[in-house]
Amino acid sequence: MKIYCYSGLGADRRAFRYLDLAPHELVHIDWIDHLKNESLEQYAVRMMSVINVDEPFALMGLSFGGMIAVEVSKHIKPEKLIVISSIVCKDEMPAKYKLVKVLGLHKMIPVWFFKHPTRLTNYFFGAKTERAKKLLTNILQSTDYAFLKWAIGSMLNWKNTQKPNCVRIHGTDDHILPIDNLPTHHRIQGGGHFMIVQKADQLSEIITQAIAQ
Fold it and tell me: Which of 6, 18, 109, 156 is the most exposed place for a label (fewest CB within 10 A)?
C-alpha cells in the first residue's frame, strides 16, 4: 500500500529516509508554494492532487505535516492516518504558542535561527546524534524562509476542532510540541521532535504494525 507522507516545518523528504516500511511504498508529497493569505485548511486541499484515491492508501504527517494530513483526511478517506510529533486540533496547541500568536512574535523569528543551527536549535529539535545534527543542519539551511514564516503563521491560526481517528506517535522529550497530556497511542521514550531520524527503527515497527491492523 502507498503511504503518502507530509514532512514538518523546515523539513523535506530527507526526514523520512531512515524509515523502513516494506512492503509498503512511501510516497513523499513535496511542499508547493503557498498563496497570499492562504490558510492551512486551503493549502491542504491543494496538497491532495497527487494522491491516487482509486486504490487503498494511508496518510502520514510529521509535525506541521501532521496537521496537513489531518485536513486532507477530511476530504479523502485513508485506510490509516498516522500523526507523528504533532497535534490534531487547535485545542492541543501549547499555551506558549497561543501567546506567540497574540503578540505576533512569530513574525520576528530571525533567519539565522534556521540558517545557522546552534546548540539551542539542536535542543529544541531533539537532535542528539551526529547523524541527526548533520541532517537537521542540511535540511534547515535549504529551507525556504518565506514558506517557513507562512507555515508557522498558518499553524498558529489553524481552526480545526475535530479529533480524527488516527494513530498518534509522540516522543516524551519533544521540546517543540511537548507531549504533556496529549492523547497518544505510542509514547517513544527519549524521543525528541526529530525522533523520526534517531528512533527510525522503533517508528518503522510501530507504523508497519499499525498499517497491518
Answer: 109
- The tens digit of pLDDT for each residue in 113-145 reads 666 777 888 888 888 888 888 888 888 887 788
Model-wide pTM > 0.90: yes
Residue found under cell 504527517: 61
> What's the grid cell of residue 187?
509514547
Cell 498558518 belongs to 154
Burial of 111 by CB count in 10 Å (0-12 exposed, 13-18 middle, 19+ buried)? exposed
Q: What is the DSSP letter of 5?
A: E
CATH class of 2-212: alpha beta
Query: In a 3-state reduction of DSSP, which class is residue 188?
Result: strand
pLDDT of residue 140: 81
3-state SS, 86-117, equals: CCCCHHHCCHHHHHHHHHCHHHHCCCHHHHCC
Name the nearest CA neighbour of 175 among 68, 96, 83, 89. 96
- Tally of CB atoms within 10 A around 82: 26
The ranges of the chain with pLDDT < 50 are none
Contact status, residue 206 vs residue 78, Cβ threshold 8 Å: no
What torsion do the CA atoms of 31, 32, 38, 41 make, to the nearest 10 degrees?
-50
- Those residues with Cβ within 8 angstroms of residue 54's Cβ, 6 or more apart along the chain or in another chain: none
| Annotated domain spans of the chain | 2-212
